[in-house]
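Table S2 (continued). Query chain:
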Amino acid sequence: MKKSILLGFIALFLVGVFLFGFSSMAVAKKIRIGGIMDTTGATSDVGKDYALGMDEAFKYINEQGGVNGKKIKYTWFDYGYRIPEAITKYKLLKRLRSTAIMGWGTGDTEALSPTINKDKIPYVSASYSAHLTNPAKSRYNLFFSSDYSTNARAAITAWFDKKWPAKPDYGKRKPRFACCYMFASPYCSAPIKAIKDQAKMLGFEVGPDQDVSLFALDTKSQIMALKKFKPDLLWHGNTTMSVSATIRDAYALG
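Corresponding output:
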């Protein structure tokens, strides 16, 4: 379902870009689209599949006849989840006259945002940071989903409404909530303030955060700290590798 939504969004986006205001694109034989992906860095555990899916999506669009009869020339680079490298690759894609760019991470997308909007190059990122939703500041930053903060608030509210009333301690104490994420990562930390504000509004007792690296393979110390607080609900803001390590250690340590 998510794959079809992404593919549909890309197709509609490209039609819109073609029709509205890009005269150089209208006379070009091919539509130049750029990509900045993470296939070797901290989020490559999910980034590799996304990069492959993006490449396959453009191939599929071309196989169906392209956009208004024009084929897409998609050029993408791996930036290893490093912000300076993303900036370098953006400049290269701009020199290659990319009409739009498909991006990836939160830190790099936020760092590039002022330049993107100055250059007026549509930038479709896989970062759904709420910091990118203000059209006055980030008009050319686009994504096809609700933002991280909205998702986080919805998740904790759903648990509070549906799951907490079924717990034996319901009505006897406040539910306890804690967060695991990589403190230094803009992606992981993006929704933390929003979800904590929502937790406090709902009446949760909010426990201490646990710093879990995106590269973490062992999280036993964080699990032991969480056991002292005994959270009823835990938000983990990382990607697959470190989240699975946390779940494994939580299961092992009871």
